[in-house]
Amino acid sequence: MKEKKLHPYFVQSDKEIISGLIKYLQHANISDFSDISKQLNKLKIETLADLWQYAKGKNSSDTLAIYLEIIFKRIKQLESCQLQSFCSSSQVGYYLCDKLSGQEQEQLYGIFLNTKNKIIAEKLIFQGTLNKATVHPRDIFRWGIVYNCASFILVHNHPSGDSMPSQQDIEITKKIKAASEFMGINFIDHFIVTDKNYLSLKEANLL
Predict the structure, then answer these.
(1) pLDDT tens across the length of the chain (207 residues)
(2) Would you list the DSSP string of 89-112?
């Protein structure tokens, strides 16, 4: 079986990374922790530093090296527990997939940014079924004023696994967009996320 090639900078969700690494290990006939332990002993790998040195060496496959690089970077990011700045839709989209992964109820979050697109705060605004009656712009802009933000991003999850926006989603987004123009706070994007993917309403020309 030909080894799958990965691009080291392709943004993936944590679930995709873990699933891909498991498949890679299974292809290498490593199916459980005892197999992993035997392989580590064989390679004389006792620490994460040893593992990283092996990954960078000539005996490691490109695929394993890339997976380990991504995982080590994600572990370092856990120290801050949040994204530091808004860089790209894909980066934010997959970060939000991971953040809301496994939630059984719809949740609406506001991500508030300063003038340099640095994230000031992430705030859970609403939990439950989203509709025009329960989600009001004042609930969003109240926190925007508290944080003195210059712009914000909205995100809510679809536990069904379908990232396509409902008519309610589109109407709520347009309502908040109109309010943001009146308030003078930039509404950057509205993401709908599932465990595996996301949809940007801005990229879909729905914002």
Answers:
(1) 344 445 444 445 667 777 888 888 888 888 888 888 888 888 888 888 888 888 888 888 888 888 887 777 666 555 444 566 676 777 778 777 877 777 778 888 999 999 988 888 888 888 776 655 467 888 899 999 989 999 999 999 898 888 899 898 899 899 999 999 999 999 999 999 887 788 889 888 888
(2) HHHHHHHHHHHTTT-SS-EEEEEE
Closest CA to 155 of 118, 103, 115, 116: 103
Strands 107-113 and 119-127: antiparallel
Residue-wise DSSP of the chain = -PPPP--TT----HHHHHHHHHHHHHHTT--SHHHHHHHHHHHT--SHHHHHHHHHSTTS-HHHHHHHHHHHHHHHHTTT-S--B---HHHHHHHHHHHTTT-SS-EEEEEEE-TTSBEEEEEEEEES---TTT--HHHHHHHHHHTT-SEEEEEEE-TTS--PPPHHHHHHHHHHHHHHHHHT-EEEEEEEE-SS-EEETTTTT--
Q: Whole-model pTM above 0.90?
A: no
**Please, are residues 111 and 153 in contact by the beta-carbon 8 Å criterion?**
yes
Q: Are 171 and 132 spatial neighbours (Cβ–Cβ below 8 Å)?
A: yes
Question: Is residue 54 within 8 Å of residue 45, measured between CB atoms?
Answer: yes
